C-alpha cells in the first residue's frame, strides 16, 4: 500500500468523530504494510525499552505496556511510516484544521500478562494550547478482546472531571466511576487487521489486560493542529513533555521545533 494514498472520509464519519471524540476505521492499512513497518517498530521497541523489572514488581502504569517514543528519529523505515500522508490527512480532516504537525510518536507493547491501561485522557500530559490534538492508534496485528483492545468513553471529550489525573489506579477508579455515574457509554471491541482508531486528546479511554499468550504491538502517532501553540506547563510532567517534544519553543510560540515537522497541509 502507498502510505500517501488517500483514505476517503465521509462527512458522516467526520461528524461522528466530532460528536463522539473517537472513531474506528477499517482497512486503513493492509497486511503487507503492517508486516513491513511493524517488524521494524517492534524490533526497536524491544531493543530500546528500558523497563526490565518482572511484571509482578512493576507499578500499574508500567504493567500496562512497554513504551518507546520518537522511533521516527531512530530509523529511516519508521520515519517513512510516520511521514505518511494517508494517516496525516485523515488526522487533519477529523480535526477539521488546515494542517497537522507531529507532536510525537509512541510505541505501546503490551506483553502477554500485561495489565490494564487505566482510564485517562492523553492531553493531561501535554502543554498544548488547544484541544486540536488527535492520536492514531495503529495495531500491528489484529487485536481480539483477550489482547486488550483500546476502548473509548463516547462523547467524553468535554468532561473536565479527571483531566488532572495521570494513568494510575486512582484514574481508573475515579474516572470510570464518574463516566458510569453520568451515563457515558464505554465502547470497546476487537480491532481487525488494518483497522485504526483516532481519538481526541481529551477523550477518556482505557484498555483491558492482555490475557493472551501473544504480545499486543501498537504504534501511535500524535498529531496536533499545525497552528498549535505551546502553553505554560501546568505540572512538572508537562514541563518535561515541552522539553522533550518541543525543545527551544517558548510558551505562546508555535509548537514547530525540528521535532514537530509539518506532516500534512490542505
Automatic annotation (TrEMBL):
InterPro entries xref list: Phytyl_CoA_dOase-like
Keywords: Dioxygenase, Oxidoreductase
Origin superkingdom: Bacteria
Molecular function, one GO term: 2-oxoglutarate-dependent dioxygenase activity
Protein name: Phytanoyl-CoA dioxygenase family protein
Organism of derivation: Limnohabitans radicicola
